[in-house]
Amino acid sequence: MTQPTDIRRGVSEHLRTALHLAASGVPVLPLRAGKLPFGNCPACARNACGGRPNMKTPGPCACSQPCHGWAAATTDPTVLNSREWALAWREAAAVAYHPGGAGVTVVDLDSADAIAWARATLPATRTVATTRGEHWIYRGTMASSNAARPGVDIKSLMQYARWLGPGVGVTAPLPDAVRALAVKEPSPAHRAPQALSVPLRGRGGVCRHRTPTYLDRGIAMAVQRITDARSTIHATVYRTFLAVLSTHGGCGCLTDAHVARLFTAAQARGESPRHCTDAWANALTTLGL
């Protein structure tokens, strides 16, 4: 007698939580054991509904069952209470939500080292305790990224996260430091040796600088581009370095003083000296300088 009662109580609790979240604008869905979404229903099997079989990138689908992972998340109480969803709630082990649909990003920290990194690197925000670590929740959305760094996943658009309670603290705006984690760096196979510690200059190619003003204007524009960046700082710095070197890096007119201006601008936007050096070296390697 105890087991069925416990099961009914569990289903009721999950559905009650889902309805409460949906009423506040958070799209929700049931999860089965193992924190996994429910598999495709018979109507959607083998792409019969017109959607995509990969549950993380569904196409158009009119199915009312929770069969497409994160995209099944809904705020519609009629759907959540529907007969089609009844079996899912009966078997559900947890409630999940779509962070991107709720306008937030979850930084999933799965280890003590990851938490220590976040505390030293990221601005304080609303925090939720998990089984192995913490969820840090920021206001704003971005591309999701698994293994963005050791022990760190980014869950926002096209991803779901388990609901573990409201957490503590005030939700802060999504910082550039988190957005930068989803930026793909140039392949390590093309990196210059890590022993590089100072900027390098060009190797005596043809000079296109008729006056020093041309070069100074180019550096000033590059500095301004880095300074004005509000997101994807890593990528902006690398692309800017690449642009400067493609125009000014082949003749030897680019001095350490010019490069120092670029590095100073990048570090003022939060880049480390090592990342600046790596980005500069990668740009040199890409251009064959």
N-to-C series of helices and strands? HEEHHEEHEEEEEEHHHHH
Global geometry: elongated
The CA-CA distance between the termini, in Å, is: 76 Å
Number of strands: 10
* Assembly level: single chain
What's the alpha carbon Rg, rounded to whole Å?
25 Å
Helix tally equals 9
Which structural category do the helix and sheet elements fall into? alpha+beta
Uncertain runs are 1-10, 52-60, 186-203
- Major beta sheet, specifics? 6 strands, mixed
Helix content range:
25-40%
Work out the strand percent: 5-15%
What would the average pLDDT be, to the nearest integer? 79
Question: Please, could you describe this protein's structure?
Answer:
This protein is of the alpha+beta class and 289 residues long. The protein contains 9 helices and 10 strands. Strands 4, 5, 6, 7, 8 and 10 form a 6-stranded mixed sheet that branches. A hairpin with a 4-residue loop joins strand 5 (126-129) and strand 6 (134-139). Helix 6 runs antiparallel to helix 7 (233-248), helix 6 (212-228) runs parallel beside helix 8 and helix 7 (233-248) packs across helix 9 (273-287). The longest helix has 22 residues, at 2-23. It is elongated and about 75 Å long.
Sum up the structure in keywords.
single chain; 289 residues; alpha+beta; 6-stranded mixed β-sheet; 4-stranded antiparallel β-sheet; 10 strands; 14% strand; elongated; disordered N terminus
Write a short abstract of this structure.
By secondary structure, the protein is of the alpha+beta class.
In terms of topology, how is this protein built?
Elements: H1 2-23, E1 28-32, E2 36-37, H2 77-80, H3 83-91, E3 94-97, E4 104-109, H4 112-121, E5 126-129, E6 134-139, E7 145-149, E8 152-155, E9 161-162, E10 172-173, H5 176-179, H6 212-228, H7 233-248, H8 256-268, H9 273-287
Parallel strand pairs: 6-10
Antiparallel strand pairs: 1-2, 1-3, 3-9, 4-6, 4-8, 5-6, 7-8
